[in-house]
Write a structure and sequence with these properties.
Length: 420
Protein backbone atom coordinates (compact mmCIF):
# COMPACT_ATOMS: atom_id res chain seq x y z
CA UNK A 1 0.00 0.00 0.00
CA UNK A 2 2.82 2.46 0.78
CA UNK A 3 4.40 1.76 -2.60
CA UNK A 4 1.07 2.37 -4.31
CA UNK A 5 0.49 5.64 -2.43
CA UNK A 6 3.97 6.92 -3.27
CA UNK A 7 3.49 6.03 -6.94
CA UNK A 8 0.18 7.89 -7.01
CA UNK A 9 1.77 10.91 -5.35
CA UNK A 10 4.57 10.95 -7.88
CA UNK A 11 2.40 10.66 -10.98
CA UNK A 12 -0.06 13.34 -9.83
CA UNK A 13 2.77 15.75 -9.14
CA UNK A 14 4.57 15.01 -12.38
CA UNK A 15 1.47 15.51 -14.48
CA UNK A 16 0.61 18.85 -12.90
CA UNK A 17 3.86 20.24 -14.26
CA UNK A 18 2.14 20.36 -17.63
CA UNK A 19 0.18 23.44 -16.65
CA UNK A 20 3.36 25.12 -17.89
CA UNK A 21 3.63 24.12 -21.53
CA UNK A 22 4.64 25.33 -24.97
CA UNK A 23 2.39 27.54 -27.07
CA UNK A 24 2.91 30.15 -29.80
CA UNK A 25 5.26 32.27 -27.69
CA UNK A 26 7.82 31.80 -24.94
CA UNK A 27 6.69 29.49 -22.15
CA UNK A 28 2.96 28.86 -22.46
CA UNK A 29 2.00 32.38 -23.54
CA UNK A 30 0.02 32.89 -26.73
CA UNK A 31 1.61 35.88 -28.46
CA UNK A 32 -0.97 35.80 -31.24
CA UNK A 33 -3.75 38.28 -30.48
CA UNK A 34 -4.71 40.84 -33.15
CA UNK A 35 -4.93 39.78 -36.78
CA UNK A 36 -3.43 43.10 -37.86
CA UNK A 37 -0.34 42.43 -35.73
CA UNK A 38 0.45 39.01 -37.21
CA UNK A 39 1.96 40.46 -40.37
CA UNK A 40 4.39 42.53 -38.28
CA UNK A 41 5.30 39.59 -35.98
CA UNK A 42 3.54 41.73 -33.32
CA UNK A 43 6.37 44.26 -33.34
CA UNK A 44 5.49 47.67 -31.92
CA UNK A 45 2.33 46.43 -30.24
CA UNK A 46 2.33 48.95 -27.37
CA UNK A 47 2.65 51.88 -29.82
CA UNK A 48 0.50 50.67 -32.73
CA UNK A 49 -2.95 52.20 -33.20
CA UNK A 50 -4.34 50.14 -36.06
CA UNK A 51 -7.70 49.15 -34.61
CA UNK A 52 -9.61 48.27 -31.44
CA UNK A 53 -7.02 45.60 -30.49
CA UNK A 54 -5.06 48.44 -28.88
CA UNK A 55 -7.46 47.90 -25.96
CA UNK A 56 -5.42 44.75 -25.21
CA UNK A 57 -1.89 45.81 -26.13
CA UNK A 58 -1.96 49.29 -24.59
CA UNK A 59 -5.29 50.78 -23.45
CA UNK A 60 -3.81 54.30 -23.48
CA UNK A 61 -3.84 54.10 -27.28
CA UNK A 62 -7.63 54.10 -27.45
CA UNK A 63 -7.68 57.90 -27.32
CA UNK A 64 -5.53 57.92 -30.49
CA UNK A 65 -8.19 56.04 -32.48
CA UNK A 66 -10.65 57.96 -34.68
CA UNK A 67 -13.69 59.29 -32.83
CA UNK A 68 -16.63 56.91 -32.59
CA UNK A 69 -16.84 53.17 -32.02
CA UNK A 70 -14.35 50.52 -33.20
CA UNK A 71 -14.70 46.74 -33.29
CA UNK A 72 -12.26 44.06 -34.44
CA UNK A 73 -12.81 40.32 -34.79
CA UNK A 74 -9.82 38.02 -35.35
CA UNK A 75 -9.44 34.30 -35.95
CA UNK A 76 -6.04 32.60 -35.79
CA UNK A 77 -5.23 29.11 -37.06
CA UNK A 78 -2.18 27.84 -35.16
CA UNK A 79 -0.18 24.78 -36.24
CA UNK A 80 2.68 23.87 -33.90
CA UNK A 81 4.77 20.78 -34.60
CA UNK A 82 6.63 18.81 -31.90
CA UNK A 83 8.38 15.69 -33.24
CA UNK A 84 10.51 13.62 -30.86
CA UNK A 85 13.66 11.83 -32.04
CA UNK A 86 15.09 9.26 -29.66
CA UNK A 87 18.74 9.68 -28.67
CA UNK A 88 19.41 6.57 -26.61
CA UNK A 89 16.61 6.33 -24.04
CA UNK A 90 17.20 3.72 -21.33
CA UNK A 91 15.32 1.54 -18.87
CA UNK A 92 11.54 1.63 -19.29
CA UNK A 93 11.94 4.20 -22.07
CA UNK A 94 14.26 2.02 -24.16
CA UNK A 95 11.34 -0.07 -25.42
CA UNK A 96 9.89 1.98 -28.29
CA UNK A 97 6.28 0.98 -27.67
CA UNK A 98 4.32 2.34 -30.61
CA UNK A 99 7.21 4.64 -31.56
CA UNK A 100 8.34 8.17 -30.84
CA UNK A 101 4.90 9.69 -30.40
CA UNK A 102 4.15 11.11 -33.81
CA UNK A 103 3.59 14.86 -34.04
CA UNK A 104 2.59 16.23 -30.64
CA UNK A 105 1.17 19.39 -32.22
CA UNK A 106 -2.06 19.89 -34.15
CA UNK A 107 -4.20 22.67 -35.60
CA UNK A 108 -5.93 24.95 -33.12
CA UNK A 109 -8.32 27.84 -33.74
CA UNK A 110 -8.04 30.88 -31.46
CA UNK A 111 -10.73 33.60 -31.72
CA UNK A 112 -10.30 37.10 -30.29
CA UNK A 113 -12.55 40.17 -30.22
CA UNK A 114 -11.87 43.81 -29.34
CA UNK A 115 -14.02 46.91 -28.89
CA UNK A 116 -13.25 50.58 -28.24
CA UNK A 117 -15.31 53.76 -28.05
CA UNK A 118 -14.86 57.36 -26.97
CA UNK A 119 -17.01 58.43 -24.03
CA UNK A 120 -16.01 62.09 -24.45
CA UNK A 121 -13.05 63.86 -26.10
CA UNK A 122 -10.74 62.88 -23.21
CA UNK A 123 -12.09 59.52 -22.03
CA UNK A 124 -12.34 56.21 -23.91
CA UNK A 125 -13.59 52.72 -23.02
CA UNK A 126 -12.38 49.40 -24.38
CA UNK A 127 -12.97 45.68 -24.07
CA UNK A 128 -10.82 42.70 -25.05
CA UNK A 129 -12.05 39.09 -25.16
CA UNK A 130 -9.08 36.86 -25.91
CA UNK A 131 -6.85 33.87 -25.09
CA UNK A 132 -3.55 34.99 -23.47
CA UNK A 133 -2.22 31.55 -22.43
CA UNK A 134 -2.67 28.07 -23.84
CA UNK A 135 -1.18 24.68 -24.60
CA UNK A 136 -2.07 21.51 -26.45
CA UNK A 137 0.27 18.62 -27.04
CA UNK A 138 -0.88 15.05 -27.61
CA UNK A 139 1.30 12.05 -28.46
CA UNK A 140 0.42 8.52 -29.54
CA UNK A 141 -1.05 6.71 -26.54
CA UNK A 142 1.52 3.90 -26.56
CA UNK A 143 4.67 5.87 -27.38
CA UNK A 144 7.93 5.34 -25.49
CA UNK A 145 7.37 8.49 -23.42
CA UNK A 146 3.83 7.61 -22.35
CA UNK A 147 4.90 7.42 -18.68
CA UNK A 148 5.77 11.12 -18.84
CA UNK A 149 3.07 12.60 -21.07
CA UNK A 150 0.29 11.72 -23.47
CA UNK A 151 -2.09 14.68 -23.58
CA UNK A 152 -1.57 18.15 -22.11
CA UNK A 153 -4.22 20.80 -22.71
CA UNK A 154 -4.42 24.19 -21.03
CA UNK A 155 -7.03 26.74 -22.08
CA UNK A 156 -7.65 30.29 -20.90
CA UNK A 157 -10.38 32.85 -21.55
CA UNK A 158 -9.81 36.49 -20.67
CA UNK A 159 -12.25 39.40 -20.37
CA UNK A 160 -10.42 42.74 -20.09
CA UNK A 161 -12.39 46.03 -19.83
CA UNK A 162 -10.27 49.19 -19.76
CA UNK A 163 -10.32 53.00 -19.73
CA UNK A 164 -8.02 55.57 -21.32
CA UNK A 165 -7.66 59.22 -20.35
CA UNK A 166 -6.14 61.89 -22.59
CA UNK A 167 -3.90 63.92 -20.28
CA UNK A 168 -2.83 66.30 -23.06
CA UNK A 169 -2.82 66.55 -26.83
CA UNK A 170 0.26 64.30 -26.92
CA UNK A 171 -0.09 61.91 -23.96
CA UNK A 172 -2.67 59.41 -22.72
CA UNK A 173 -2.84 56.99 -19.80
CA UNK A 174 -4.76 53.71 -19.67
CA UNK A 175 -5.74 51.02 -17.19
CA UNK A 176 -7.83 47.88 -17.15
CA UNK A 177 -8.78 44.77 -15.19
CA UNK A 178 -8.75 41.16 -16.36
CA UNK A 179 -11.10 38.35 -15.41
CA UNK A 180 -9.26 35.21 -16.53
CA UNK A 181 -10.28 31.55 -16.39
CA UNK A 182 -7.85 28.65 -16.79
CA UNK A 183 -8.78 25.00 -17.49
CA UNK A 184 -6.31 22.12 -17.67
CA UNK A 185 -6.57 18.47 -18.68
CA UNK A 186 -3.47 16.29 -18.43
CA UNK A 187 -2.99 12.57 -19.04
CA UNK A 188 -0.32 9.84 -19.01
CA UNK A 189 0.05 6.25 -17.80
CA UNK A 190 1.59 4.91 -14.60
CA UNK A 191 4.85 2.94 -14.82
CA UNK A 192 5.90 0.19 -14.99
CA UNK A 193 3.07 -1.64 -16.80
CA UNK A 194 1.50 1.27 -18.65
CA UNK A 195 -2.03 0.01 -18.00
CA UNK A 196 -3.01 2.47 -15.27
CA UNK A 197 -4.29 5.53 -17.14
CA UNK A 198 -4.15 8.83 -15.26
CA UNK A 199 -6.34 11.87 -15.93
CA UNK A 200 -6.19 15.20 -14.15
CA UNK A 201 -8.62 18.09 -14.63
CA UNK A 202 -8.38 21.40 -12.77
CA UNK A 203 -9.55 24.99 -13.19
CA UNK A 204 -9.84 28.39 -11.53
CA UNK A 205 -10.88 31.98 -12.27
CA UNK A 206 -8.83 34.93 -11.01
CA UNK A 207 -8.21 38.64 -11.59
CA UNK A 208 -5.37 40.86 -12.80
CA UNK A 209 -4.79 44.36 -14.14
CA UNK A 210 -2.95 46.20 -16.90
CA UNK A 211 -1.55 49.73 -17.30
CA UNK A 212 -0.36 51.75 -20.27
CA UNK A 213 1.01 55.09 -21.44
CA UNK A 214 1.26 56.44 -24.98
CA UNK A 215 3.04 59.60 -26.11
CA UNK A 216 3.05 61.32 -29.50
CA UNK A 217 6.69 62.35 -29.20
CA UNK A 218 6.80 64.09 -32.61
CA UNK A 219 4.43 64.42 -35.52
CA UNK A 220 5.87 61.19 -36.96
CA UNK A 221 6.90 59.23 -33.85
CA UNK A 222 4.73 57.55 -31.23
CA UNK A 223 6.04 55.82 -28.10
CA UNK A 224 4.10 53.36 -25.94
CA UNK A 225 4.72 51.33 -22.81
CA UNK A 226 2.44 48.81 -21.12
CA UNK A 227 2.43 46.53 -18.09
CA UNK A 228 0.31 43.46 -17.40
CA UNK A 229 0.16 42.00 -13.90
CA UNK A 230 0.72 38.41 -12.87
CA UNK A 231 -2.30 36.30 -11.92
CA UNK A 232 -2.18 33.67 -9.22
CA UNK A 233 -4.43 30.67 -9.81
CA UNK A 234 -5.53 28.36 -7.01
CA UNK A 235 -6.30 25.39 -9.23
CA UNK A 236 -8.73 22.83 -7.92
CA UNK A 237 -9.71 19.59 -9.59
CA UNK A 238 -9.60 15.81 -9.54
CA UNK A 239 -7.00 13.14 -10.12
CA UNK A 240 -8.33 9.78 -11.35
CA UNK A 241 -6.76 6.38 -12.12
CA UNK A 242 -8.58 3.76 -14.18
CA UNK A 243 -7.15 0.66 -12.42
CA UNK A 244 -6.54 2.04 -8.92
CA UNK A 245 -9.69 4.04 -8.07
CA UNK A 246 -8.72 3.99 -4.40
CA UNK A 247 -6.10 6.58 -5.31
CA UNK A 248 -8.62 9.01 -6.80
CA UNK A 249 -8.81 12.31 -4.98
CA UNK A 250 -9.32 16.02 -5.20
CA UNK A 251 -6.18 18.13 -5.51
CA UNK A 252 -5.11 21.77 -5.28
CA UNK A 253 -2.06 23.53 -6.72
CA UNK A 254 -1.09 27.20 -6.96
CA UNK A 255 0.13 28.44 -10.34
CA UNK A 256 1.16 32.04 -11.03
CA UNK A 257 1.20 33.23 -14.64
CA UNK A 258 3.86 35.93 -15.06
CA UNK A 259 3.65 39.70 -15.28
CA UNK A 260 5.13 41.40 -18.34
CA UNK A 261 6.16 44.84 -19.61
CA UNK A 262 6.54 46.16 -23.17
CA UNK A 263 8.16 49.24 -24.68
CA UNK A 264 7.36 50.08 -28.32
CA UNK A 265 8.08 52.74 -30.93
CA UNK A 266 6.13 53.55 -34.09
CA UNK A 267 7.54 55.91 -36.72
CA UNK A 268 6.00 57.27 -39.92
CA UNK A 269 9.09 57.42 -42.14
CA UNK A 270 7.31 58.94 -45.17
CA UNK A 271 3.85 58.67 -46.79
CA UNK A 272 4.64 55.12 -47.92
CA UNK A 273 6.64 53.54 -45.08
CA UNK A 274 5.88 52.95 -41.39
CA UNK A 275 8.50 51.45 -39.06
CA UNK A 276 8.03 49.86 -35.63
CA UNK A 277 9.91 47.99 -32.94
CA UNK A 278 9.41 46.67 -29.44
CA UNK A 279 11.04 45.00 -26.45
CA UNK A 280 8.99 42.83 -24.08
CA UNK A 281 10.11 41.42 -20.73
CA UNK A 282 8.23 38.53 -19.11
CA UNK A 283 8.76 37.59 -15.47
CA UNK A 284 8.86 33.80 -15.93
CA UNK A 285 11.26 33.49 -12.98
CA UNK A 286 8.17 33.57 -10.75
CA UNK A 287 7.67 29.96 -11.91
CA UNK A 288 10.25 28.18 -9.76
CA UNK A 289 8.33 25.33 -8.14
CA UNK A 290 4.88 23.80 -7.86
CA UNK A 291 3.47 22.50 -4.59
CA UNK A 292 0.72 19.91 -5.03
CA UNK A 293 -1.69 19.21 -2.16
CA UNK A 294 -4.30 16.48 -1.73
CA UNK A 295 -7.65 17.89 -0.55
CA UNK A 296 -9.71 14.72 -0.02
CA UNK A 297 -9.29 11.19 1.29
CA UNK A 298 -7.27 9.94 4.25
CA UNK A 299 -4.25 12.04 3.25
CA UNK A 300 -6.18 15.30 2.82
CA UNK A 301 -4.00 18.30 3.58
CA UNK A 302 -0.73 16.52 2.88
CA UNK A 303 1.77 17.78 0.32
CA UNK A 304 2.15 15.32 -2.50
CA UNK A 305 5.39 16.85 -3.72
CA UNK A 306 7.26 20.08 -4.42
CA UNK A 307 8.51 20.24 -8.00
CA UNK A 308 11.16 22.54 -9.49
CA UNK A 309 10.69 24.49 -12.71
CA UNK A 310 13.74 26.77 -12.41
CA UNK A 311 12.46 29.04 -15.18
CA UNK A 312 14.18 32.30 -16.15
CA UNK A 313 12.88 35.71 -17.19
CA UNK A 314 12.67 36.19 -20.95
CA UNK A 315 13.04 38.96 -23.52
CA UNK A 316 11.28 39.35 -26.85
CA UNK A 317 12.60 41.69 -29.55
CA UNK A 318 10.62 42.59 -32.67
CA UNK A 319 10.91 44.95 -35.64
CA UNK A 320 8.44 45.52 -38.42
CA UNK A 321 7.48 47.72 -41.35
CA UNK A 322 4.39 48.62 -43.37
CA UNK A 323 4.40 49.70 -47.01
CA UNK A 324 1.34 51.59 -48.20
CA UNK A 325 0.61 50.48 -51.77
CA UNK A 326 -2.32 52.84 -52.27
CA UNK A 327 -5.20 54.40 -50.31
CA UNK A 328 -6.86 51.00 -49.87
CA UNK A 329 -4.05 48.56 -49.13
CA UNK A 330 -0.73 48.11 -47.38
CA UNK A 331 1.79 45.31 -46.98
CA UNK A 332 3.16 44.28 -43.57
CA UNK A 333 6.51 42.72 -42.69
CA UNK A 334 8.05 41.66 -39.39
CA UNK A 335 10.69 39.59 -37.62
CA UNK A 336 11.06 38.80 -33.92
CA UNK A 337 13.21 36.81 -31.53
CA UNK A 338 11.41 35.17 -28.60
CA UNK A 339 13.34 33.55 -25.74
CA UNK A 340 12.17 30.46 -23.88
CA UNK A 341 12.08 30.40 -20.06
CA UNK A 342 12.78 26.65 -20.00
CA UNK A 343 16.10 24.84 -19.66
CA UNK A 344 17.63 21.46 -20.48
CA UNK A 345 17.50 20.40 -16.82
CA UNK A 346 13.72 20.54 -16.30
CA UNK A 347 12.32 20.37 -19.86
CA UNK A 348 9.83 17.54 -20.53
CA UNK A 349 7.71 16.44 -23.53
CA UNK A 350 4.82 18.38 -22.00
CA UNK A 351 6.69 21.59 -22.79
CA UNK A 352 9.17 21.02 -25.66
CA UNK A 353 9.84 24.76 -25.79
CA UNK A 354 12.93 26.53 -27.08
CA UNK A 355 14.01 29.94 -28.40
CA UNK A 356 12.16 30.92 -31.55
CA UNK A 357 12.55 33.37 -34.45
CA UNK A 358 9.45 34.79 -36.12
CA UNK A 359 9.24 35.78 -39.80
CA UNK A 360 5.94 37.33 -40.85
CA UNK A 361 4.11 38.96 -43.73
CA UNK A 362 0.64 40.46 -44.01
CA UNK A 363 -1.78 42.41 -46.19
CA UNK A 364 -4.36 45.00 -45.23
CA UNK A 365 -7.25 45.97 -47.50
CA UNK A 366 -10.00 48.54 -46.97
CA UNK A 367 -13.13 47.42 -48.84
CA UNK A 368 -14.99 50.48 -47.58
CA UNK A 369 -14.41 53.69 -45.66
CA UNK A 370 -15.45 52.04 -42.40
CA UNK A 371 -14.23 48.45 -42.91
CA UNK A 372 -10.73 46.94 -42.89
CA UNK A 373 -9.62 43.39 -43.65
CA UNK A 374 -6.25 42.07 -42.42
CA UNK A 375 -4.59 38.82 -43.45
CA UNK A 376 -1.34 37.64 -41.87
CA UNK A 377 1.04 34.70 -41.90
CA UNK A 378 3.96 33.96 -39.57
CA UNK A 379 6.42 31.08 -39.38
CA UNK A 380 8.34 30.32 -36.19
CA UNK A 381 11.76 28.75 -36.54
CA UNK A 382 12.22 26.99 -33.20
CA UNK A 383 15.54 25.66 -31.93
CA UNK A 384 15.80 21.93 -31.26
CA UNK A 385 14.67 21.17 -27.71
CA UNK A 386 16.71 18.56 -25.84
CA UNK A 387 15.03 16.32 -23.26
CA UNK A 388 16.70 14.06 -20.71
CA UNK A 389 14.06 13.25 -18.14
CA UNK A 390 12.18 10.49 -16.38
CA UNK A 391 8.74 9.79 -15.01
CA UNK A 392 8.31 11.10 -11.49
CA UNK A 393 8.73 8.15 -9.16
CA UNK A 394 11.52 6.69 -11.32
CA UNK A 395 15.16 7.73 -11.42
CA UNK A 396 17.43 8.65 -14.32
CA UNK A 397 19.57 6.64 -14.68
CA UNK A 398 18.53 3.91 -15.24
CA UNK A 399 15.16 5.09 -16.62
CA UNK A 400 15.91 8.02 -18.94
CA UNK A 401 13.81 9.43 -21.77
CA UNK A 402 16.55 11.01 -23.87
CA UNK A 403 16.03 12.75 -27.18
CA UNK A 404 15.48 15.88 -29.20
CA UNK A 405 12.30 17.61 -30.30
CA UNK A 406 12.28 19.04 -33.82
CA UNK A 407 9.86 21.94 -33.52
CA UNK A 408 8.27 24.60 -35.70
CA UNK A 409 5.03 26.57 -35.84
CA UNK A 410 2.84 28.31 -38.41
CA UNK A 411 0.20 30.98 -37.83
CA UNK A 412 -2.53 32.13 -40.23
CA UNK A 413 -4.64 35.09 -39.13
CA UNK A 414 -7.67 36.90 -40.50
CA UNK A 415 -9.26 39.97 -38.94
CA UNK A 416 -12.10 42.29 -39.84
CA UNK A 417 -12.30 45.72 -38.23
CA UNK A 418 -15.18 48.16 -38.45
CA UNK A 419 -15.63 51.77 -37.47
CA UNK A 420 -19.11 52.92 -36.51
Amino acid sequence: MNIRIESIRAIVAGTLVATAGAAMGGGFAIGTQSGSGTGNAFAGGAAAVDDASVAWYNPAGMTFLPRGKQAAFALHALKPSFKFQDRGSTGLFAAPGTGDGGDGGDWALVPNAFYAMDINPKLSFGLALNVPFGLKTEYDSGWRGRFVAIKSEVKTANLNPSLAYKVSDTMSLGAGVSVQKLDAQLTNVLPPTGTNFFDLSADDTQFGFNLGIMVQATHATRIGASYRSSIKYELEGTATFNTTPAGNSNIQADLRVPDSASFSVFHQLDPKWELMGDITWTNWSTVQQLVVVRTSGPLAGSTLTTLPFLWDDTWRFGVGANYRMNAQSKLRFGVAYDETPTNDLTRTPRLPDQDRTWVAIGWQYKPSKSGTLDLGYAHEFIRDANVNTTATGLTCPPHCLTGTFKNKADIISVQYSHQF
